Amino acid sequence: MTVRVNMGAGPGNEPALIDLEELLATRLLVQGNSGSGKSHLLRRLLEQSAGQVQQVVVDPEGDFVTLAERYGHVVIEAAEAHEKDIGRLAARVREHRASVVLSLEGLEAEGQMRCAAAFLSALFDAPRDHWYPALVVVDEAQLFAPAGGGEVAEEVRRASLSAMTNLMCRGRKRGLAGVIATQRLAKLAKNVAAEASNFLMGRTFLDIDMARAADLLGMERRQAEQIRDLARGTFLALGPAICRRPLTVAIGPVETQARSMSPKLLPLPNAPAGDLQGLLFAPGPELPPPPPRPEPKPLASDALLEQLAAAVPSVAPAMPAKSTAEGEAIVAAVLEALASDPDSGGRSAAVLYQDFTIRCRMAGLAPAPFDLPAFTRRLSMARAGIFSEADGSWAPALAAADGLPDDMLGPFLLLARAAREQQPCPSDEAIAASYGTASLGRVRRLLSYIESRELIVTRVDLSGKRSIAIPRLGWTTAAA
User: A GO molecular function for this record (predicted)?
Assistant: First the structure.
């Protein structure tokens, strides 16, 4: 399912669209000085995607709590909740797929970092069955992932930075798509900023920030001056979810407003200076002594937990059941996408299996149709160009390879495909790609091992061309 979010007007007044599904996979970084319109941009993104994807907002100033009345977000006031309850709340957020705003207003900087670290870590550590897609929006991200030490305790800084790094670096496997906004790139930890593939760069004035923004946008340093001239609410956009070349986007209007607004000029009072002096220094009324303060009691979070549970069904709605043919079609499409990814050869089967389960869930197929060993076998088949087990014509080849390890199945099937279709013998590089390696030495040892099992026979003619036969099947490749 393709969902495009309209962020405003692009060049020629054309709609500036963000592919929401691509955004979930590639993350977003928003940068701009105070007053450039970052919060307005995030609010536009949240409003336009509300109802399409779960939203989790980490809000240090309490600006986004107004989304609750219009879009049904549950507001978590961190100042009124126990720290030990924050992780429990985050776990229920993932379980019930509730859209929430974690308001950190009223906490000191160290308390905000401690609370955000506990909340984001609990989102990240949720059980695999709760890895549903979610946008995780963090405003003022430099507060939670600072580039250097500050006045907070080192333990708190490390916990917050670790949680932000997990969100941006490893969150995609768990369905978490980080959307972070910062006033200055120089204040944001590089490991956190570097994981975003989509960028919206607003007005900034410092040379170091303009240079980093230009580098991220793929612009020359002399072109960075235009970042200083951007109007408020206008951003330079780039990324696979937005556009392939930098373009200017004017963010559209929003339906809700922040509780804190930009300052506006108001007329000063007309009272004479003498009257104002009298008002300021007039004696106040005699006030009764304040009543004795009661012993402070811990604020319970049960009511907040009940509100969160009531906001969504007690059990997350099950995905519609897929027929066997529909499930196999989804699995074949996901395996084909993984096999065609040029980076998949350098990743282990366990990492690719996590990616596989998330892609299946996003396509409406949950839980995963098979376990890790079966996935390794199917991935080997996919690397040989066989994406479905329903094709019975490959049964003899699969039976012949029954004694091979699963990771060797791909190279053998690649040879079998070429032999059955009498195509030229695959090169060592092609066999290496199907084996998930770049070492040609490993390929030669692999072929020697398969030949020692009497599954293939290699012939090299006088001109140096190689052909490979599969005696059990009576198939032979053309010489190459």
Answer: ATP binding
Contacts by 7-15 with C-beta closer than 8 Å and gap 24+?
7/41, 7/44, 7/45, 7/48, 7/237, 7/249, 7/251, 7/252, 8/44, 8/249, 8/250, 8/251, 8/252, 9/249, 9/250, 9/252, 10/237, 10/243, 10/247, 10/248, 10/249, 10/250, 11/247, 11/248
Structure tokens at 102: 């974690």
Q: Where are the alpha helices (DSSP H) in 341-427?
A: 349-362, 372-383, 395-400, 406-420
pLDDT in tens, 418-438: 888 888 998 888 888 777 777
Q: Which CATH architecture has domain 4-257+303-310?
A: 3-Layer(aba) Sandwich (3.40)
* Gap between the Cα atoms of 193 and 186, Å rounded: 10
* Separation of alpha carbons 436 and 443, rounded Å: 10
How far is it between the farthest Cα atoms of the chain? 113
3-state SS, residue 406: helix
CATH says 391-480 is which class?
A: mainly alpha
Q: Cα separation of 248 and 16, whole Å? A: 9
pLDDT tens, position by position, 442-476: 888 888 888 888 888 888 888 888 999 888 888 88
Q: What is the pTM of this model?
A: 0.58
